[in-house]
Amino acid sequence: MQGTQKVKISGLSMKRYAIRKPIAIKPDGNFVMAYDIISHPGLARRSLRRLDMKLQVKLTVERNRIEPRYKLGIIGKGVMTRREVIEQIRARTPFGRTVIAAEMNYCNELMSVLIARKKFKWPEKIKTRPSSIPKEWRWIPRRWWRKWRQYFRNIVLFCENTTDELTAHAAKYRLKNVHPLFKSKGFIVLALYGVDDVRARFSPIAKNKRVVYIAGVGHGSPSKYTGHMGNTILKTCSYDVDEVKGKVIQLLSCQTAQGLGPDLIRKGARAFAGYHENFTFVFDQPETTIDEMELFWKCDSMWDIIMADGQTAESAHYAAINAYNAAIASVPNTAAATWLTHDRDCFRSPVTGRRYGSKKAKLYPYIISPESPFAEVEHRLREFDIARK
Q1: Whole-prediction pTM value?
Q2: Taking 60 as the threshold, does the pLDDT of residue 175 lie above it?
């Protein structure tokens, strides 16, 4: 297929149709291409957001017109075809203005990358390994560890909406790539999906003090995160504090970082990561492979992966941003690149503000922290021994 052939330009491999997409527009209405920016860097000095709105509309329409047939999946809002997106742009509806802003922001960034010849690398892959005694806990007698390890394992709780057309894409990716990693690190993994992804199942498990991490994909709003058939899992000021106290929470859902995330922190959650605006992805496009669509899930799940590895929320944030940057650079000047940029810029975590918790938050696979004195460990073990008898 000709559209999948690529051309090297300033260190980026662009699909042939992407080469034909303008990335700027002059005040006289003439389009500016990638090659023009490399030949005349001065064309990139002015921010596209400062252009007359008519020119922004013209540029955005042309970029989407040249893009091969596609659909936009907006988690929580539905699906839009390319034709519907262009209609929204021309009418300057609220969503149309969102598309215009997303395109202008991406084009501004692409021009700077072309001029600077920036290169982005994926974060190093976290290796999975069978659960064993972590080095921090190796001072515990081995006979105790073998006998009592199951009682010390912490729990991660996933709420994955697999029954919705849009969220199912991400849920299947997470079930395959995220859940096994947590298990390999020593955590007990509990997953609510299908018809079980409802509050009635969530609440009793979440209250368990051994649950240290809650995450998943579902529809959302500024104040609510939902599961199967729109069932409310978490809603601002409408849940038991014990469900979130002391836990780290990450939600792949639209707008939950606006109100729900900060509310979870006020109720005692240690850290929150999510999205301030609608999470949008590109799919059902002839020129887009399954791997390219999965870039959206791969970037978002980088937060989960780094947290599973025992690193800080701060490290998880920067790993996720680096993943987005690498993904954007891998599909330059495409609709996927535009919306990956949009999602990256909407991502929120403790790094973006204290209202999202502590940057130093970490996860431990076992309830004994590395600093626990030996006497406390012995006391816990004896309690378990007495309980069993």
Answers
A1: 0.89
A2: yes
| Residues 63-107: tens digit of each pLDDT | 999 999 899 999 877 899 999 999 999 999 999 999 999 999 999
Query: Distance between CA atoms of 303 and 273, rounded to whole angstroms?
Result: 8
In this prediction, residue 46 carries a pLDDT of 76
Q: Can you give the residue range of the structural domain that contains 168?
A: 135-356
Q: What own/partner pairs with CB < 8 Å and gap ≥ 24 does 57-60 have?
A: 57/89, 57/90, 57/92, 57/100, 58/25, 58/29, 59/22, 59/24, 59/25, 59/31, 59/103, 59/104, 59/107, 60/89, 60/99, 60/100, 60/103, 60/104
Could you give the dihedral angle defined by the CA atoms of residues 168, 169, 172 and 176, in that order, rounded to the nearest 10 degrees?
A: -160
Are 151 and 277 within one domain?
yes
| 113 alpha carbon, distance to own chain's centre | 23
- 167 domain residue, yes or no: yes
Domain match, 272 and 145 both? yes
Nearest to 123 by CA among 360, 332, 326: 326
